[in-house]
TrEMBL record:
Gene Ontology cellular-component terms listed: membrane
Biased composition (Basic residues): 205-214
Superkingdom of the source species: Bacteria
Keywords: Hydrolase, Membrane, Transmembrane, Transmembrane helix
EC number: 3.4.21.89
Protein name per its UniProtKB record: Signal peptidase I
Comp. bias intervals (Low complexity): 192-204
Region (Disordered): 1-21, 192-217
Main localization category: membrane
């Protein structure tokens, strides 16, 4: 082939239509795109670090806040990272994530506002959302506590809340497949060779060189966005955000039902119309000898508003007579006999008689509110009393005790 023909097939390159100003603009655009790519790379890596790496290294779990009950500190879409905690170490003001029902996946993230204990001394927690007026209903037990807030990042969880759980899983797989780095030359490598494996002709090379110079800014843009590192970081960032679990931080509402009045009852046991009988001398008897007895009738009244049950006991001031005198209480309403032969008729309310200084009526007897019961008290010096009791004297006290416990 002649030199003229060869020259015809290889036309000399024309000067670039771009002058110094064009090259400057092209360089600025390239730098801007590269910087933007680097910024996206750093942001994606930061998302991965905050949502995956740091929680994994710290044994924590990331959640996304769904509602506004913890606003303004943790608005909807906040990524909150929760790490395990011993419920006994929690204090008022700590923010915790807990299960609504133990063993179930639904969780709430709220602040501890009160700490109590159960019957066995275990820790109980009362929680409330920062934006709620009232505490959450019921106490939170340690078995429900998932963990304590470690740190939170606003808005980072919005991507996760835009999808259902199934959609998040599917989207993660798709994004990971699309963004994972590809082998060199798969999508951003050099152009394929000419058909048949033949190298392109020189005129074609000159033509490609001219295109490369005229589209330099576009080539920089493609290289930046096709960078395997950038695509991997973006994939990890999106997948990490999609896989974050949600926490409700639920709203609460309280309905007050009023109008009911509860009044405690009164318990008022009186004897012969008085709360204290200091001058009851109907049982007094001088010159008591073996076989002698004295008796008196008392009326027990329930002046309160609730039923009561009563018991009775006796006491004295002389030790020998405590075991020597016999006291009995019956349901008689009158005294039989006179002087040192006064007695009470009817059976003993206790079933048996007892010595002075012991229980007179140990089995509870009930009196309705506003009701009364008459009893007869008899004191006897038995015929078998020893001579050693002669000349002794004792003050006798009867004690009647009322209670609202009717069992």
């Amino acid at each position: 082939m002649s030199a003229a023909a060869r020259h015809a097939t290889r036309p000399s390159p024309r000067p670039s239509p771009r002058g110094p100003a064009g090259r400057l603009v092209s360089g600025l655009v390239g730098a801007l795109v590269s910087g933007l790519g680097l910024l996206v790379l750093v942001a994606a890596l930061a998302v991965v670090a905050v949502a995956v790496v740091v929680p994994r290294l710290g044994g924590a779990t990331p959640y996304t806040v769904l509602t506004g009950s913890m606003s303004p500190g943790m608005p909807p879409g906040t990524l909150v990272v929760v790490r395990p905690v011993d419920a006994a170490t929690l204090r008022t003001g700590d923010v915790i994530t807990y299960q609504l029902r133990s063993g179930e996946p639904d969780v709430v993230t709220h602040r501890v506002v009160a700490i109590g204990t159960d019957e066995e001394g275990g820790t109980l927690l009362r929680t409330r959302g920062d934006a709620n007026a009232d505490p959450d209903p019921g106490w939170v037990r340690p078995v429900q506590v998932v963990g304590e807030r470690w740190y939170s990042v606003p808005w980072l969880g919005h991507v996760s809340t835009a999808f259902t759980a199934a959609q998040r899983e599917s989207a993660s797989r798709v994004v990971a497949g699309l963004c994972w780095p590809t082998p060199p030359g798969c999508c951003c490598g050099p152009a394929s060779s000419a058909p048949g494996g033949a190298a392109p002709s020189r005129p074609l090379m000159h033509s490609r060189s001219r295109r490369r110079r005229s589209t330099m800014s576009l080539r920089v843009d493609r290289r930046t966005w096709r960078s395997p590192r950038l695509r991997a970081a973006l994939g990890l960032g999106v997948v990490a955000t999609l896989l974050v679990t949600s926490t409700q931080a639920s709203w609460t509402d309280t309905v007050a039902v009023g109008g009911a009045t509860i009044t405690t009852g009164t318990l008022d046991l009186r004897v012969d119309g008085s709360d204290a009988v200091a001058s009851f001398d109907d049982l007094s008897l001088a010159g008591l000898v073996p076989g002698s007895s004295t008796a008196a009738v008392l009326t027990l009244e329930n002046s309160g508003t609730v039923p009561l049950a009563w018991t009775a006991a006796s006491s004295g001031t002389d030790a020998p007579l405590l075991g020597g005198l016999v006291v009995d209480v019956t349901g008689a309403t009158t005294v039989t006999g006179t002087g040192s032969a006064r007695t009470c008729g009817g059976p003993s309310l206790a079933g048996v008689t007892g010595s002075l200084g012991g229980t007179l009526v140990g089995t509870k007897r009930q009196i309705a509110a506003g009701g009364s019961e008459t009893v007869c008290v008899e004191v006897t010096l038995p015929l078998t009393a020893p001579v050693s009791l002669a000349g002794h004297s004792t003050d006798l006290t009867l004690t009647f005790t009322g209670t609202s416990d009717l069992s």
